[in-house]
Amino acid sequence: MEDYRLKTSIVILTYNQLNYTIQCIESIRQYTNSGTYEIIIVDNNSTDETRQWLSQQSDIITILNDSNLGFPKGCNQGIEVATGDYILLLNNDTVVTENWLNNMLYCINSDERFGAVSCITNNCSYAQTIPVSYNNLHEMHAFAAGHNVPDQSKWEQRLKLIGFCYLIKRSVVDEIGLLDERFTPGNYEDDDYSLRIRKAGYKLVLCKDTFIHHYGSVSFREDSSYSKLMKVNAKKFEEKWGFNPIYSQNIRFEIINMMNSDPEAPLNVLEVGCACGGTLMNIKHRYPNSNLYGIEIDEAASSVASMIADVRNYDAERGLMEYDDNFFDYIILADVLEHLYDPWKVLRNLKRFLKTDGKLLVSIPNLMHYTVINGLLEGSFTYTEAGILDRTHVRFFTLHELKKMILQSGYYKLDIAAKTLSNQSKGITDRLSGIVSPAVMEQFNVYQYLVSAKKHDLDETFEYIMDHTEETQIIVNRVSAYTADEVIQSVLLSVNENQAELLNTIGVSHFSVGSYEKALPFFENAFYLDNNNEEVLYNISYFLCFIGESSNASQFIDRLREVNEKSYNQLLEVIKDFAQ
Q: Cα separation of 133 and 578, whole Å?
């Protein structure tokens, strides 16, 4: 790999925490090629011994502020005096490692469209962390030395990069300008800068082949107002760009992990409610030959997602979906259905666009989570800004109702996983012990359900059956791709007004072609639906006698006699030959 000699200006802000600063600077000196960088420290009026220590360093350019000007302003001060070809914004609570800068420079210079890159760490948001097991810095450096091997397959395009270690081409900085100081004292200026870089036509890349240690926001999080600041600056971001930076940039890893196709497959993937496209972007990383499509009601978010996918800006409940039939390998609705007035209709409308072997992937919050049940037992059902009782939710689902909705909408082969946060439901378990079943108790810990399902054509098949009751072999052929339970369940959940007649016809069809072992479940369920149906009673009685189960047939024969004496007598005439 090339040893980059173009200069990198490393801009570091300090405000107290001298011990972290010393560790950071010493690691830079040890693991960065001399002559390839300059260190610029902007001190925001530290009150510990930071300034005294800085005055003793001969290789550091210092800017000493008379007050704490915040992170964006301080970074801008450093950038303005920087002379390097690259600007690296680095937190003072980091410890850099072997090959850290060379790896990132190799990546950023590999493509003229790469505007900025970052690395992974042990402590960071937005999935820029990896699990680590080291116990001290010595072990950390040993781990990093083995990890930091250049590997382009570990470069991942991102919507945004977290600013703890943010390497940017100087030419990009000159083009888009400095950090936006409206986000002073800090937070979301990196989200803002990431978006500006992307809107200028550049890509952001996370170098997963590069690891440094990060202690983690030691300055900000000591302040009790940190959470309030996050909310204030998130609001500033939304006012500037038109979308929420938290929700709209999410990557739904739990949904992506449900995909199990060949990594080289040319997949067609549609995400309904794709927001800014974070999930689609990660899918593209895992499935590089995939074709990405999205539907997003928020115009600002959809414009961002359109940078990486074919995104349509409309309401999925009202917009005209114009895709080819049987086109998508995956259709994703991640925490979307609860926001729709008629999710049943949307699921039915989407079904035609899903391939026969394609999958519907859904995530949805669980109304039976113990936090909700506890509230109900206390008489409250209070809406919140986020979570299960998000005030924007218009539909709520338990596991039973979720299954029912998806099955009623024309899907089957449901594979359901449960996502739990922590097991804290003992209180509700104690209160409801003896009232609800253990299976229901388990649902109290579930925060969210993840569902994978396939579409079926049984609705169309049922219509055909009712119009062609005599075509027994065709009827059997059309339902043969499904188990009896799948067919029966679909009939029971269908809107067909003649469910008993439909099941009876399927049973007769199996009997007519000699599939005796498959006929009985259809006759039995037809009877359970309508125990006054003369034809159903006649057929199940006849069938059981035909296969030698006369004793089991007696209850149905007796019932037929109560319903219609004439049919009963006709049956007796027919089945008397079976006894001979």
A: 75
Separation of CA 507 from chain center:
42
Q: pLDDT tens across 236-267, in order?
A: 999 999 999 999 999 999 999 999 999 999 99
Q: What are the φ/ψ torsions at residue 202 (nearest 5 degrees)?
A: -100, 165
Dig out the tokens for 518 from the structure.
């498959």
The Cα 233–Cα 183 span in angstroms is 6
**Mean pLDDT for all residues in the chain:** 93
Contact 443, 433 (CB under 8 A): no
Using the structure block, give the residue that is written with the tokens 């204030």: 232
Backbone angles phi, psi at 97, to 5 degrees: -135, 180
Could you give the CA distance from residue 56 to residue 210 in angstroms, rounded to a whole number? 31
Question: Which residue reads 């803002």 in tokens?
Answer: 192
Measured between alpha carbons, how far is residue 434 from residues 326, 378, 438 in Å? 48, 19, 9
d(CA 23, CA 154): 28
User: Strands 60-64 and 291-295: what pairing?
Assistant: unpaired
* Spatial separation of the C-alpha atoms in residues 329 and 94, rounded to whole Å: 42
In this structure, are strands 94-95 and 114-120 parallel, antiparallel, or unpaired? unpaired
CB atoms within 10 A of CB 423: 10
Q: Is 414 exposed, middle or buried (CB count within 10 Å of its CB: 0-12, 13-18, 19+)?
A: middle
In the chain, the largest separation of any two C-alpha atoms, in whole Å, equals: 113
Q: Which domains does the chain have, with CATH numbers?
A: 8-241 (3.90.550.10), 253-455 (3.40.50.150), 458-575 (1.25.40.10)
Q: Residue 195: which H helix or E strand, with range?
A: helix 189-199
List, as one string, the DSSP characters of 90-127.
E-TTEE--TTHHHHHHHHHTS-TTEEEEEEEBSS-STT
pLDDT of residue 226: 80
pTM to 2 decimals?
0.89
d(CA 302, CA 59): 47
